[in-house]
Amino acid sequence: MNPEILIIEDEEEMRIALTEVLIRNGYSVHTASNGIEGLELFNKEPFNMVITDVKMPKISGLEVLKEIKKQSPQIPVIMITAYGTIDNAVEAMREGAFDYILKPFSAEILDDTVLRAIRNQTGKNTANPLIIAPLPTDSIKIVTNNLSMKKVINMALSVAYSSSTILIQGESGTGKEMIAKFIHQNSNRKDKSFVAVNCAALPKDLLESELFGHEKGSFTGAINRKIGKFELANHGTILLDEISEMDMSLQAKLLRVLQEREVDRVGGREPVPIDARVIATTNRNLREAIDEGEFREDLYFRLNVIPIVIPPLRNRKEDISLLIEYFIKKHSSKNRKNVTGMAKDALLMLTDYYWRGNVRELENVIERAVLLCKGNLITQEYLFMEAIVEEINSSVKAGVTVREMEKKLIFNTLEQVNGNRTKAAELLGVSIRTLRNKLNEYKNEEGL
Predict the structure, then answer these.
(1) Which of 29, 33, 37, 30 lies closest to 12 in space, CA to CA?
(2) In terms of CATH, what superfamily is 396-445?
(3) What is the per-residue pLDDT for 133?
């Protein structure tokens, strides 16, 4: 028996087009021209799926969704939205929508979304997996049994097939770039380029050329034309890592790129149209950056169309043992070691640790332990965690100000990473700009 699909769409042309595509693919289709009519049909006939527009007269698609989920929570609902109503679509996903599709869209995107919904409903997709691999041949895996992380993954999957801008927020080491790649690999752009740019790694003049490209002779040293990262990511995905560290003047140019979907090469005469999905990441609270005059509010709204927040590892205690097991297998195989597990007291120590550097720090600890381990089981002696805890405890003394403690922590961290400010900022959980400002303060204080 063919799946029965109810389409609720007030635009007649769109309703006809949706019907033709779905019938061509073997589905039985019923249609309604508004939400009230759609709910009446839903109450009379059994349906396997509902596809509804978001913005409709009488009652909205969001109200239709809530009513359907109240009556039949197992029925997948796909939302169709125009660009101007995307915030409603994100809200709809939080209310239980299976996915949403941005207008205009291709028949291929519709086919794929409907097929995924049918498979999900019939149980052909793995439910609540601990390890999710987006592609069989890909090395990126998300290991979790945490409810908040599962919501992050479901959100990422739900928005993967759209072209909307995504802002991924989270502390350093939580896996923001991994989620960005996960989204790319589950999108219709997966066969195109994924281009990552670290906005904190280059000064503004170089970053402008890196992002937007330049023409030959546009400045001293420009001996050839350079294609920018946005053009390289055309029809694919561009990741703007540490977006909060971008200079304000460049933020204005980025805003124009996002609005106009075209880039101006440095020294170029005409804009170059681009079609790249933009994902931005930050470990900083952008609202605070806006209040401090370091980030444009209009750019924030343009980037924050679909917000994803990754929880820190200390709030995912149930994931620590899973991640340890995964990293032991990974690094044992990589280094041809025969380490198979971890002693209970060592596991307890890692579970109780604060993990300022999150998953990245945990992996570093496990990689080191695997390399040093002499037998099959990692014990406390191979973790070197006690030295870290003792150093923290010994540095906390009565009469020492918070500012002095902060200064000592910053310089100790810089010493541990051989002066690498980017690495130090990651370990400290602050932006590179914040670290730079702190060091300038200390420098002025000491009159250096």
Answers:
(1) 33
(2) Homeodomain-like (1.10.10.60)
(3) 35
